[in-house]
Description:
The structure is a single chain. By secondary structure, the protein is α/β, with parallel strands linked by helices. The chain has helices spanning 17-20, 22-34, 70-89, 100-117, 137-143, 161-164, 170-177, 188-201, 229-238, 240-253, 271-284, 306-326, 343-352, 367-374, 407-419, 422-438, 441-460; strands at residues 4-10, 36-45, 54-58, 61-68, 126-130, 149-153, 182-185, 205-207, 210-213, 216-222, 257-264, 292-299, 334-337, 355-358, 383-387, 400-402. The strands form 2 sheets. Strands 3-4-2-1-5-6-7-10-9-8 form a 10-stranded mixed beta sheet, with helices on both faces. A 6-stranded parallel beta sheet has the order 13-12-11-14-15-16, sandwiched between helices. Strand 11 (257-264), helix 11 and strand 12 (292-299) form a beta-alpha-beta unit.
Amino acid sequence: MSRLVVVSNRVGPVKDAARAGGLAVALVDALKARGGLWYGWSGKVDERGNDSAKIEEAGSLTLATVDLAPEEHEEYYNGFANRCLWPLFHYRIDLTAFDRRYYEGYRRVNAKFARVLHPLLKPDDTIWVHDYHFLAFGNELRHMGAEQSIGFFLHIPFPAREVLAALPHHDAMVRGLFAYDVIGFQTERDCERFRDYVVREAHGSEDGDKLHCFGRTVTVRAFPIGIDSEGFAKMAASDKDACKQHDKVTSSLAGRTQIVGVDRLDYTKGIAERFHAYERLLQDYPETRREVSYLQIAVTSRGDVQEYREMREELDGLSGHINGAYGEFDWTPLRYLNRPMARRSLAGLYRASKIGLVTPLRDGMNLVAKEYVAAQDPEDPGVLVLSRFAGASYQMAEAIIVNPYDIKGVADALQIARYMSQQERRERFEALMGRLKSEDVAHWRDDFLTALADVAERRIRPTVS
Length: 465
């Protein structure tokens, strides 16, 4: 079995992989099973921006990391990755910074990552590259003579052709993706959008899951990422910290129905629209007052970016308005927290919440939706209200699917969830949980690596005359 090389923007953790979540567990397990190298940015910004890797052994794994210089970090990470690709791929053209300086910096840093990794590679390695930080990475490796099998998985949505075409050098970005052997997306809709661009914009052709363009053939498939559903369910039901959190929340609710939302503080998550929908619930259904409580955890991210500062100010204002208009001395309608919570405590919080409100405006998958379901008590499960624009909606049709832009529609869905019978809740939960178990994170990992191995086998299989 060939060695697995995982390339991601951040590396680790290894010792605390379970605490970090299912993705870290899946990657660490695969790396340990095959002997592996995990490679990426160290998270450090150093004036020298060294061009050599720091190597650390962690059992059967090798960790290799590279520091970035301040200019590299600004142009590659803050600039092109997070001020250009992130908003554009989430359909926020109005927030996209079309700065060619950022693009050039992104290309230079992708080339740097490739240059540092190349001498560490073995001829039969299998390389698995992750996410929008490394769209150009495979092409840079190929220019250096790398002939290994290289797969790429995009964790965020892929935009429609007309949206992507707004990006200067969009053609070069897609051409670079054809250096990979397998390109994986979260949903079949993402695959369709990629195929549409290749066929109609780049004049390529398709044959099943194969795309032909730029003199290369790549396999393009949907590989919906999952969670460790059984492990998370066990944690929610029996872990000491999870049970403590569950009991604490249940006691504080005093019989009220809790709605919970857990997100990074990001404009893609639709939190402001969610607050408006909750206010509409209180307006249209006065009997919900004092009977419901909404807890929104929104962990601050990219707090130094102006758009994120403005969003936080907006949410602070909205939460204050709702509590001022509807709150009473012994009831706070909306509790809004910017503090992170330990994963074990989150499991207990989900289990104590009768409604999970997951309504991003656009999301590649959204694993909070899956964790919420996995945490539920099978005998008395809660109800998931889920945005149709989350990738998870394609696997979770038994949730109440909503349009997050339809404020009244989301409010009505919350009211339906409040009164849903236990029998219907159990039926929905059983269907959802069955799919979460069969399409878990290990299935995602193995499915992708099998597809990449199939490509490698076809490449070396001798031609029969």
